[in-house]
Write a structure and sequence with these properties.
- Chain A has helices spanning 10-15, 17-25, 45-57, 72-77, 81-86, 110-135, 163-180, 189-196, 198-201, 204-210, 219-233, 254-257, 269-283, 299-306, 328-338, 353-362, 377-383, 394-414, 419-425, 440-449, 462-470, 519-533, 555-558, and strands at residues 32-40, 60-66, 90-94, 139-142, 184-187, 240-243, 290-296, 320-324, 346-349, 428-433, 474-483, 486-499, 502-510, 538-543, 562-566, 572-577, 589-591.
- By secondary structure, chain A is of the alpha/beta class.
- Chain B has 81 residues and is an all-alpha fold.
- The A-B interface holds A 11, 14-19, 22, 43, 45-46, 205-206, 208-210, 212, 216-217 and B 13, 16-19, 39-40, 43-44, 47-48, 51, 59, 62-63.
Chain lengths: 593, 81
């Protein structure tokens, strides 16, 4: 919904929140349901209501638990049957500098101040540890915004008695905890409040009138940031950019003006701004965000432009470059298809509102932020939170390489008339094993990100993955695929739970970047082998249709299962008899060699 | 600004905040007359009215405002200043 995408009108959202909620719920969008607990140190009512809007817009339908006013500590550290019963998927702790128990006094010694700091840290640590132990779910914790007055003036920042100094040190303690503990994420209200304007953000009117620790008008900005962390945890980050060239990553039109005349580089101010924007885009590659081009240009001119001596981006920084005269929405679709990505996982960056309109009009849920002038491109795009980073897996760091390799594979395929020969030429090797500790983060990530090749669309947190892997009543398998072009990493996951002589498949997913490689057959072969070892006689598979997983509708049929049940909405159940006559289906991948 | 004009614009704000296009406020309307008008919604109402008329209520006013008529009095007083 356009109204909930950055840059949004906060006042409009606050005023129309009820109407917006109704519209979102009636939009026909598919939602995943999540339980979110908000433990507040001040009023949280509107924070919750606006957070709900941003989450619904991301396809997450939250059910909330909200602590009584300022009961965040009690709710966390004492037995809490209501919260236990609620089974939160996420806990958000909304505390602010209004919740500091005691600040340093001028007469305090350095040791006294250290003690105060340690006591405050201990209060929060006990909350986090108690929650982590009881609920095993991700915790989102606000850091502290700066105080709204400075007793010592500028010295408040450097003197140990200053509130600015005290809060800064405490924030550092929070970050140390975040660096050493999984499932713990900081919501950086220190940055958000500064960005909004601390004076407005911390207007004491709202605290004394309503016990809101921030300006009510700033709530959409806070809730938006919390929603970004949550959608990232549930695998709803974007995966890449699709970029226009002329007047987007350089000034001018390379085809008309010639490469020597495009505006780029250190010579003058506008060129510097474009260079800064290019550097910003390129930095994203470090996060595994992929870059592509969708430009109305002769390809030759596009390449010449990207080879401009001052260009920060070069042709090999991109996975796909579509420079031609076809409509941009068509190119955009083709890029998504070639990468086996859903269009909505790519962000469209174009200075031309008409082109943005064509692309977002054709493909629902594609984001194409409104851009005004080039000096504001970074500010706008960055605040959208498309790539909000919560967990960085090794795969993320290698993603650009992996997509490049995939394009090379597609090119190789063109040279083969027989697909089986092509698969053999890839020299594929797989490692298919029960879950192992080093892959837990990736497995959880995959379970949250896979939408298309996903039979049940069940989502798991890392804690749940770990717990399943230890439980003898479950069969778990991850599959990692390597070929002559490189390592694809962990690309498939199966979880089955054993009931008597039956293995019921709770989860079967595969990354779309290894579609049509017979990896699913290698997984099936291993599943049958594992079942036989455990004396299991029957495998039961389930397919639950969503808007996105149509491609696996007949998956179990192809695997040789028999359909035993189908309901009116298309949910199907399948049975496979395990026997010693099973013939392996995969003959192109060498497994566990 | 006339009193009628203020009511007209106030109605819009009330209708948005309570998502009810049938709301018509008058002098004597109080929080008892509108089902969703509780203390938490009151904040949103105050914020939306402030934005609409480009004014700020002070804390005393927010605390003592008894009905819509008093709210209109304050808006008109501010508009004159």
């Amino acid at each position: 919904m356009r109204e909930l995408e950055y840059p949004f009108d906060a006042e409009y959202i606050l005023r129309k929140k009820k109407k917006l909620k109704k519209e979102l719920l009636n939009s026909g969008k598919q939602f995943i349901d999540k339980n979110i607990a908000i433990l507040g140190g001040s009023t949280t009512s509107d924070i919750k209501i606006i957070l709900e809007l941003f989450l619904l817009n991301q396809g997450i339908r939250p059910l909330f638990y909200e602590s009584e006013y300022n009961q965040y500590y009690q709710d966390a550290v004492f037995p809490n049957p209501r919260l236990e019963c609620f089974r939160p998927d996420i806990i958000y702790i909304h505390t602010t500098n209004r919740n500091i128990t005691a600040y340093p006094q001028m007469a305090d010694s350095a040791e006294d101040v250290d003690e105060l700091l340690a006591a405050e840290e201990e209060k929060f640590r006990s909350i986090w540890e108690s929650l982590a132990q009881t609920y095993c779910c991700p915790i989102i914790q606000n850091n502290f915004e700066m105080p709204f007055y400075r007793l010592l003036g500028n010295k408040d920042a450097s003197d140990i008695h200053g509130k600015v100094n005290f809060l800064t040190r405490l924030n550092m303690k929070f970050y140390e905890y975040a660096q050493t503990h999984g499932n713990f994420y900081i919501c950086d209200i220190n940055y958000i409040s500064a960005d909004y304007g601390l004076k407005e953000w911390s207007d004491p009117f709202y605290y004394h009138m309503y016990k809101y620790a921030l300006n009510v008008n700033a709530i959409p900005y806070l809730s938006f940031n919390v929603a970004n962390i949550i959608k990232s945890l549930f695998g709803k980050n974007k995966k890449g950019f699709v970029l226009d060239l002329d007047n987007t990553i350089w000034g001018g039109v390379v085809g008309d003006d010639g490469v020597d005349n495009i505006v780029l580089g250190p010579e003058e101010s506008e060129g510097q701004v474009y260079s800064e924007f290019q550097r910003y885009l390129k930095e994203h590659k470090q996060l595994g965000v992929i870059l592509n081009v969708d430009s109305k240009n002769d390809e030759e001119n596009a390449i010449v432009g990207l080879n401009h001596p001052d260009s920060e981006l070069h042709p090999d920084d991109f996975i796909l470059i579509k420079a031609n005269w076809a409509p941009k929405d068509e190119n955009f679709m083709e890029i998504a298809n070639s990468l086996d990505l859903l269009p909505e996982s790519l962000v469209f960056i174009d200075d031309n509102p008409a082109e943005r309109h064509i692309v977002t009009g054709r493909m629902e849920n594609v984001s194409a932020p409104d851009l005004d002038c080039v000096q504001h491109y970074i500010q706008t795009i960055d605040r959208c939170g498309f790539f909000e980073t919560t967990v960085i897996s090794k795969d993320d760091l290698k993603r650009n390489e992996m997509y490049k390799e995939n394009i090379e594979r597609q090119q190789l395929q063109v040279g083969f008339s027989d697909y089986h020969d092509y698969l053999l030429s890839l020299e594929m090797k797989a490692r298919i094993k029960a879950f192992e500790p080093i892959y837990m983060a990736r497995i959880a990530q995959l379970s949250n990100k896979s939408n298309q090749f996903n039979l049940t669309t069940r989502r798991y947190t890392q804690a749940e993955i770990e717990s399943v892997s230890r439980n003898p009543e479950y069969i778990t398998m991850y599959g990692k695929l390597i070929d002559r072009f490189g390592d694809n990493g962990v690309v498939s996951v199966v979880i089955g739970h054993i009931v008597g002589k039956e293995c019921r498949i709770d989860l079967w997913i595969m990354s779309c970047r290894v579609l049509k490689r017979d990896m699913e057959f290698a997984m099936m072969d291993m599943l049958v082998k594992r079942c036989r070892e455990q004396g299991i006689e029957e495998i039961r598979g389930y397919y639950y249709p969503t808007a996105k997983n149509h491609m696996v509708k007949d998956f179990y049929m192809i695997q040789g299962f028999e359909k035993v049940r189908e309901d009116e909405i298309g949910n199907t159940e399948w049975v496979f008899k395990v026997s010693d006559k099973y013939v392996k289906k995969n003959d192109v991948i060498e497994v566990n060699g | 600004m006339t009193r009628e004009k203020v009511y007209e614009e106030l109605n819009e704000v009330f209708q948005d905040v309570f998502d009810d296009a049938t709301i018509q406020v008058k002098e004597t309307t109080t929080s008892d007359d509108i089902e969703d008008w509780d203390s938490l919604e009151h904040i949103n109402l105050v914020v939306a009215v402030e934005k609409k008329f480009g004014i700020k209520f002070n804390m005393g006013e927010v605390n003592t405002m008894k009905d819509v008529g008093e709210m209109v009095d304050i808006i008109l007083r501010r508009a004159v200043q």
